[in-house]
Write a structure and sequence with these properties.
The chain has 300 residues and is an alpha/beta fold. 45% of the residues lie in helices and 11% in strands. A hairpin with a 2-residue loop joins strand 6 and strand 7. Helix 6 packs across helix 9 and helix 7 packs across helix 9.
């Protein structure tokens, strides 16, 4: 025991220094890298500068609502009309439909011919750019590209995508594409905006007549529609079904599209498929409402 005593004393002295000892310094705080706050004004200024120097010919630029940087070539004379249409569409879409503007800037390239659209699309997306597209929303760079060679068919469609991305990013693609496609040919009267029957009706009729696609043409099929269906061989059928489903929900006899969207948006965690939101708003399940939708579709 005597032989161990000096060691025990030394051990205690090591773990419990006497009050006379200098206190140990506090550890330095960890130096985490700081992430700069997003600067909307700086982003808008940068996007304006990039747009004005793009495609070797320069572009006219207009900023709408402090968020959307519209750019069009002077030779195409599209900027004024696009700015007015964007202003009118956003005013209506934010009137009891969407809750707010996007929090980050978006560049909107309005292109007057197919060659310009293809050039910019391939520059941004490479081989992923489809020859059938009339417009595209690129989420990663927050850019919209619109081909206006065939007329004013896709500008408002693409504007809807960043609105949805901003406030309902978890909703499935079928509803996001359906609401967006609804406004490919919108009627805007003051703060009212509605989609009108358009060229996708031919695709819907082809799907109804197709033995491989007719099963898609049901309201209850929407709620189990996979996102990648919009990129494959059945994309045209999928777009037509979701578009006319949304048009029916928004039609004078129903007028419940936006209530359905908002209920689902606000309860998406508890209602991931949206079927409960639909039943709450329409008073019946998608399956039970299908006959009414089918009758309406065949009346168009």
């Amino acid at each position: 025991m005597r032989a161990l005593a000096p060691f025990a004393v030394a051990l205690v002295a090591c773990v419990a220094p006497s009050p006379a000892s200098d206190p140990l310094p506090d550890p330095a705080p960890l130096a985490w890298p700081t992430v700069p706050a997003y600067d909307l004004a700086a982003d808008v200024a940068l996007r304006k500068s990039l747009a004005r120097t793009h495609l070797d010919e320069g572009m006219d630029v207009h900023v709408q609502d402090g968020v959307f940087v519209l750019a069009a070539r002077p030779r195409d004379s599209l900027l004024d009309d696009s700015a007015h249409r964007t202003h009118d569409a956003l005013a209506a879409l934010l009137n009891g439909r969407f809750s707010r503007l996007p929090s980050r800037a978006v560049t909107v390239y309005v292109l007057g011919d197919r060659a310009s659209f293809d050039e910019l699309c391939h520059e941004r997306l490479g081989p992923a750019c489809s020859p059938t597209w009339l417009g595209v929303w690129i989420k990663e760079t927050r850019e919209i590209l619109v081909d206006q060679e065939l007329g004013r068919t896709t500008l408002v469609h693409e504007l809807v995508h960043p609105l949805l991305e901003n406030e309902a990013p978890t909703l499935p693609r079928w509803l996001r594409e359906g609401i967006s496609a609804l406004f490919e040919h919108p009627e805007i009267h003051g703060l009212a905006i509605h989609g009108t029957t358009n060229w996708r009706l031919d695709d819907l009729r082809r799907a109804l007549a197709s033995p491989t696609e007719r099963e898609l043409v049901h309201l209850d099929a929407l709620f189990r529609m996979p996102d990648d269906l919009f990129d494959g061989d059945h994309a045209l059928a999928a777009y037509s079904v979701v578009r006319f489903a949304c048009q029916w929900m928004d039609s004078p006899g129903q007028d419940r599209l936006w209530r359905f969207y908002q209920v689902w948006r606000d309860h998406a965690d508890a209602d991931p498929t949206g079927e409960k939101a639909f039943a709450d708003v329409f008073g019946k399940s998608p399956h039970d409402a299908d006959a009414a939708w089918q009758k309406w579709v065949r009346s168009l």
